[in-house]
Amino acid sequence: MLVDFTGTLAAFADAVVTQRDASLAAKPDDVEAVSRFLMDVHSRMPAFLRLPFWVLTLIFDGWSYLSHGRAFHRLELAQRTAQIEAWRGSSLEVRRRYVEFFGTLAVFGLYSELYGTDYEYAVMSEVV
Q1: Between these two residues, 58 and 18, which has the higher pLDDT value?
Q2: Mean pLDDT value across residues 32-52
Q3: What is the pLDDT of residue 125?
Q4: What is the pTM of this model?
Q5: Most buried of the four, 12, 53, 104, 121, by CB within 10 Å?
């Protein structure tokens, strides 16, 4: 398949988790959990947002054909990270906001996976 919505969100999650969790090797379970979280957020969007984000994700996935000849979800980690950073620094606001939206959600999902809910983390830290 040329572009792949699910594969793109999984590759995006992998890039963000690996970048954020660089001190520890990114665990496949963390990447999978963040990927599922991004898919869940998308599926719960109102219909008027779900389609535009689906289209933007496919555009994001296909964008790398211009420079690498492959879809984003098929790129190496360094190339995926470079594309995310290029979109983050883009002069087009829609590109910046797209990466900001899913990047923020991915980080939120990662830290929720690592530390659980805020309440559980606060209770655990008080016990110690």
Answers
A1: 58
A2: 95
A3: 52
A4: 0.84
A5: 12
Give CA angle at 103 (100, 104), nearest 5°. 80
Amino acid identity, residue 19?
A: Q
Task: For the chain, give every domain's residue range.
Answer: 5-127
**22, amino acid identity:** A
Mean pLDDT of 79-101: 96
Token pair belonging to 78: 């360094």
- Look at residues 87, 31, 96, 94 and name the one whose alpha carbon lies nearest to residue 64: 87
Cα 45 from Cα 47, distance rounded (Å)? 6
Measured over the CA atoms of residue 70, residue 102, residue 95 and residue 90, the dihedral's sign is negative
CA-nearest of 40, 41, 37, 42 to 111 is 37
